[in-house]
Design a protein that fits this description.
The protein is mainly α. It folds into 3 domains: about 45-170, Serine Threonine Protein Phosphatase 5, Tetratricopeptide repeat (Alpha Horseshoe); about 195-315, Serine Threonine Protein Phosphatase 5, Tetratricopeptide repeat; about 315-345, no CATH class. It has 15 helices and 6 strands. Part of the Bam complex.
């Protein structure tokens, strides 16, 4: 009697062949699909391919539009739709969220078609690509300050919009570019102020002065200018440059009399403490250590002079911070001297009582 079952060795051989052929079959199918995708417009007219790309763009199929415009360029690099396809490609990249590709395509269009009627649009799209790139997905849901992020893209965008306005002042895109430049100017000025404050906290007064001066010299109408003038005045004072402090204070008083660092008499109020978190303060989340450091003016105090226009006022009731006791530190502030701040008058009373 013959069995209908196939020999085991033969079954193993067929299984091995199937396992070997399956990947090859899959690769062949993918290769054929890719070739058919690349050759789908072979024999088509330039107008047909362009219309297909535009239809994809109108239906927000940006990846398909990009592929079609690229295929059009490959098949008809010098055709009648070549220039238009290039500028449409810039927009397709922009809508697809590919900022770098959009800028590269815009640069290529400007280089190839410098006299084209759409070259101003290319400059506009260059600026807009990086302008919109800062609106990250995280920023859409969380309140973030864009002035505290890397300003590289903002500077590039500002430069691109400036080129558009300089070269094409009557362009229909010039008005919108100017409005965006104002926003970018304020953003860049705020960034410099953040950096200046960072340097102040670390007592790098010269670096803080340079950042503030850059704001005054380059972003004159930005809302951050008054703060920059305040920083300059205090940094000149801390560096002992009294004449420059006089001149800067005169400008601050005349142009920004409502500055928060001017008292009712127009005198400049100097900050006597600089935030400087210690390592212990940072690692214990403020439970131990201190985040304040007394920073005297350079060289110590500004000498009074009747022939100077500059005056400054130290905060009244100056507070002195006592050191925390070891017992207070070990008990996490529950027992012992907590190092609470005392006013100068309280210290004087303590001294009088001791005497």
């Amino acid at each position: 009697m013959y069995s209908n079952q196939k020999p085991v060795s033969k079954l193993k051989h067929q299984t091995t062949v199937k396992r070997f052929l399956s990947p090859l079959l899959l690769i062949s199918i993918i290769s054929i699909s890719a070739c058919s995708s690349d050759d789908q417009f072979v024999g088509s007219t330039e107008e047909f391919i362009y219309n297909e790309a535009v239809d994809a763009l109108r239906t927000n199929a940006f990846s398909a539009a990009i592929a079609n415009f690229q295929q059009l360029e490959a098949l008809f690099p010098f055709g009648q739709y070549a220039a238009q396809a290039q500028i449409e490609l810039v927009y397709a990249y922009y809508r697809a969220g590919e900022a770098e590709s959009a800028r590269a395509a815009a640069d290529r269009f400007i280089r190839l078609y410098p006299d084209d009627e759409n070259v101003d649009y290319a400059y506009y799209m260059k600026g807009l690509a990086f302008y919109m790139e800062d609106a990250s997905i995280l920023a859409r849901f969380l309140p973030t300050d864009p002035s505290k992020r890397d300003p590289g893209n903002a500077r590039e965008s500002f430069t691109d919009f400036a080129q558009l306005i300089t070269r094409f002042p009557n362009s229909p895109y010039a008005t919108d570019a100017r409005a965006r430049m104002i926003y970018l100017r304020n953003l860049l000025a705020d960034y410099e102020i953040h950096v200046a404050d960072f340097y102040i906290e670390r007592q790098a007064f010269l670096s803080a002065l340079n950042r503030a001066r850059y704001v005054v010299e380059n972003y004159q109408e930005a809302p951050a200018v008054p703060r920059a003038m305040e920083i300059m005045t205090e940094m000149y004072l801390r560096l002992g440059l009294n004449d420059l402090a006089d001149s800067n204070l005169a400008i601050l008083t005349e142009n920004y009399p409502e500055s928060g660092q001017l008292n009712e008499n127009g005198e400049f109020i100097v900050s006597t403490q600089i935030t400087d978190p210690s390592f212990l303060y940072s690692v214990t989340f403020g439970l131990l250590g201190s985040n304040k450091r007394d920073t005297p003016l350079a060289p110590s105090r500004r000498p009074e002079s009747i022939d100077t226009a500059f005056g400054f006022q130290l905060p009244t009731q100056a507070q002195v911070e006592e050191k925390r006791s070891l017992l207070n530190i070990l008990t996490l502030g529950m027992i012992g001297n907590s190092g609470a701040q005392k006013t100068q008058e309280e210290n004087n009373e303590d001294e009088t009582t001791e005497n």
